[in-house]
Amino acid sequence: MKTKNNITGIILAGGKSSRMGTDKGFVIYKNKAFVQHIIEALQPLVDEIIIVSNNPDYDFFGFKRVNDLIENAGPLAGVYTGLHYSKTENNLVISCDVPLINSETLSLLMEGIDDNTDVVQLESNGKSMPLIAMYKKQSKAVFYSLLEDGERRLRIALTHLKVKTIVLNKNQERFTSNINTPKELTEVEK
Question: Which residues are CB-contacts of 108 (< 8 A; sequence separation ≥ 6)?
């Protein structure tokens, strides 16, 4: 596994968490907050971690936290904000609601980096996962333009970029499970 390749880890923790009923990043799974699981998966792979969230409680984790540059504009604005503050060309972006993620699965994204691709994303259970993906910093110009036009959907933004998708095998798919509700959390704890 490669380590420390001039990559910034960007954790998106700015969602409304309406289905969970509380800030998902602080939900406890196996005695740790979701965001702590994400941090531990990212740390062997990145040089810096940035948490994109308007919630100052995330300062507790000791990493750079930045507020959304464009508020209430969804994950597209979150990715844009992270890329804006990043100092590296390659940026590993991950939402805070995938506590099962591990370094091995994330390292597959690093293997997909090349000079012709703007985004390397995972595909799990037949679904592309733009919130577990590697983004080139220059993508932020496209995102800003779309945000200025009122676009909020990350999937639409990706249609304007060169995207490579890495399909996970059945054994890897469980590591990308999104946990959005208390019921999903109970199921994963079993």
Answer: 122, 166, 168, 172
Closest CA to 147 of 162, 160, 136: 160
In terms of Cα–Cα distance, which of 117, 137, 119 is closest to 128? 119
Topology adopted by domain 7-189: Spore Coat Polysaccharide Biosynthesis Protein SpsA; Chain A (3.90.550)
> 92 φ, ψ to 5°?
-90, 110
Q: How many CA atoms lie within 13 A of 169 on its CB side?
A: 3
Paired residues of 12 in beta bridges: 52, 95
Helices (H), the chain: 34-42, 74-85, 103-111, 139-148, 154-158, 170-173, 182-189
pTM above 0.85, yes or no: yes
From 20, 94, 18, 89, select the one nearest 52 (Cα to Cα). 94
For the chain, the structural domain boundaries read: 7-189
> What was the pLDDT predicted at 88?
97
**How does pLDDT run across 153-162, given as a tens digit for each residue?**
999 999 999 9
Through-space distance between the first and last CA atoms of the chain, rounded to whole angstroms: 30
- The letter for the amino acid at 118 is D
- Taking 70 as the pLDDT cut, the residues of the chain under it are 1-4, 15-22
